[in-house]
Specification:
Two copies of one chain form a homodimer.
Chain A (H helix, E strand, L loop, with lengths): L10 H17 L18 H20 L4 H15 L7 H14 L5 H10 L3 H14 L16 H8 L3 H8 L4 H7 L3 H33 L3 H7 L1 H16 L3 H14 L5 H16 L5
Helix pairs in contact in A: 1-2, 1-4, 1-14, 2-3, 2-4, 3-4, 3-6, 4-5, 4-14, 8-9, 10-12, 10-14, 11-12, 12-13
């Protein structure tokens, strides 16, 4: 991360941007409903998320070196979390987006073009490794494809049907924001990165991220909220974000919204994942604060 | 950090422990007078400290590989912070302790013995690189030796007098806690690590760190506070920490103490640096949370 030349990103810089994206997203406050620097979740505390981001660095570095499969890297991250004694779902959604972005950043072309090519190049082995990682993670079912995770024949079926990881994501794009990002070349992440490049210089890094998160939440219902509480509730949360943005002091209203969502255990986690992906894109294209 | 075997620490694990020590120390709250997860400093914000910890990872990794000089690594860390546009003093005191600990962790013997040997092996070149890093950092003069930093002849004098970095630290041990840690084989850091191993399982990671910090502050006046406000004031701050620990709810009293110190711009930063070193020692010897 020392060299800011145009000769492409080193694995260290790629890993640094990915890790910093996780830490900045984690810390931005008040980020309604999610763990942030002033809130612990009862089961997963702030320190657990810090450890999870630390353990992700060597995985991102390997992604930035190139040559390792997406599924293999996802499995490596989850395994390192579990071996440390962390829950496997601390940053599961984020690494699903950040690992392909890190691989793409090591290539010479534009990030937008390269990430499409990385996603299109995913293999059947990536799909198998992803399933293994998912089973190990304990993440919510909403975050994956439609093949049953409790069904040990899923792996055979993936092989028999010759499904790549991108194929699986396309099966889930109707009900899962992360799967949709995979299916459409991460279009919302790139769009939000553009907004962060405008918001952060105006409002500072913390408030810029909170405002970007609110805009993304206002735009589309969060699929983790929908999976836990239904589409209607997810729509209401997006409406709350919209009215916060229309208010005189969106940050203040976000604080009140945060308390309300926390009381109801509603966390718009998929929108936070997209925020981290957008931060990576913005940082790697020069955003400073 | 995946492998927990006894075959010695890999550079990745060493870097992970050092970085996590920085992030946990940074985040522990309320840590009276210092930036923490719920407080920004007006000039250096929480996000700047996160970026600083991210940029330190590759430096710690190089330390864990072995072969690089302490001074060279210190200079590398400060340079990477400055190139990113960060203030150079975000974590200056912490890396002065964490880099020798990281180098020592890559060696086969006990950490306590190896770190003494690393410090004793510091060279004249380390002293020169340290001076260059210091000049680049903008850190307070209290944190170094007695040779003038504004005097360009200091470098010549170091060479002429054949002073190693440990020699310089010994010159400052009377008035600087970090220099004293260097001079005595980091004895307070090891002692505090022992307390953290007792406090964290009882109180959780956040509160365990806050209590350990208060104990260290109660035990000895902070030298950064003394440099800015005099010994008398530093002694008063230690007395406040003692009475917090003697109260019914030390964490609650720490919150009030925090607000008072922040109002007076008093930050016991050297005690925070020793807390980070103690966290590294505890994590690398198996502390989990």
């Amino acid at each position: 991360m020392i060299d800011d030349s145009d000769e492409g990103l080193t694995p260290e810089r790629i890993a640094g941007y990915a890790q910093l994206a996780m830490l900045l997203e984690l810390s931005a406050s008040p980020k309604p409903g999610n763990v942030d620097r002033c809130h612990d979740h009862p089961d997963i505390r702030f320190g657990h998320f810090l450890a999870s981001a630390v353990l992700a660095y060597p995985v991102f570095r390997r992604a930035g070196i190139g040559g390792a499969g997406i599924g293999e890297l996802i499995l490596e991250a989850i395994t390192s979390w579990r071996c440390w004694g962390l829950p496997g779902n601390t940053h599961f959604g984020e690494i699903l987006l950040l690992i392909p972005l890190a691989i793409a950043s090591s290539r010479p072309g534009s990030l937008e073009k390269e990430v499409r090519s990385v996603l299109a190049g995913s293999t059947v082995q990536d799909a198998i490794d992803f399933y293994r990682a998912f089973a190990l993670s304990g993440a919510r079912v909403s975050q994956v494809g439609e093949l049953s995770l409790n069904d040990s024949s899923s792996e055979d079926r993936i092989i028999r049907e010759n499904r790549t990881l991108l194929d699986l994501m396309k099966l889930s794009q109707g009900h899962d924001l992360i799967a949709r990002e995979w299916s459409n070349g991460m279009s919302r992440s790139f769009k939000l990165a553009g907004r962060l490049r405008e918001l952060v210089p105006l409002h500072g890094i913390n408030d810029g991220i909170v405002l970007g998160f609110l805009e993304a939440l206002a735009e589309e219902p969060d699929s983790l909220v929908a999976a836990k509480f239904g589409q209607l509730r997810a729509g209401e949360v997006s409406a709350m974000a919209r009215s916060a943005l229309e208010g005189d002091d969106p940050l203040d209203i976000a604080g009140a919204m945060d308390r309300r969502l926390l009381a109801d255990d509603i966390n718009p986690g998929s929108t936070a994942d997209i925020t981290a992906a957008a931060l990576f894109i913005a940082l790697s294209s020069g955003l400073r604060f």
